[in-house]
Write a structure and sequence with these properties.
By secondary structure, the protein is mainly β. Helices cover 0% and strands 13% of the residues. The chain has one domain. The relative contact order is 0.37.
Length: 76
């Protein structure tokens, strides 16, 4: 998907009343784990890279589809 709406990893900012905040802001909670490198390769400076970012917005689409998007379970 090109947006994070309905994704199970999306956590949206909420108002004091518990409604979705009008700003549309949120963050992605996907825990990215780097794959092990072949023994002939190495990371420069750090043992493992650390991704940055994670900010999402219900009102904007991304340029590309997210490979980790997964539909959230229906809340009862």
């Amino acid at each position: 998907m090109k947006n994070c709406n309905e994704c199970k990893y999306a956590v949206w900012k909420r108002t004091a009343a518990g409604k979705l905040h009008p700003s549309g802001e949120g963050h992605c909670t996907y825990k990215w784990e780097p794959r092990p490198l072949p023994v002939a390769f190495y990371f420069i400076g750090k043992k493992h890279p650390e991704p940055c970012g994670g900010q999402i917005n219900r009102k904007r689409a991304h340029a590309e589809h997210c490979p980790y998007w997964a539909k959230a379970d229906a809340k009862n």
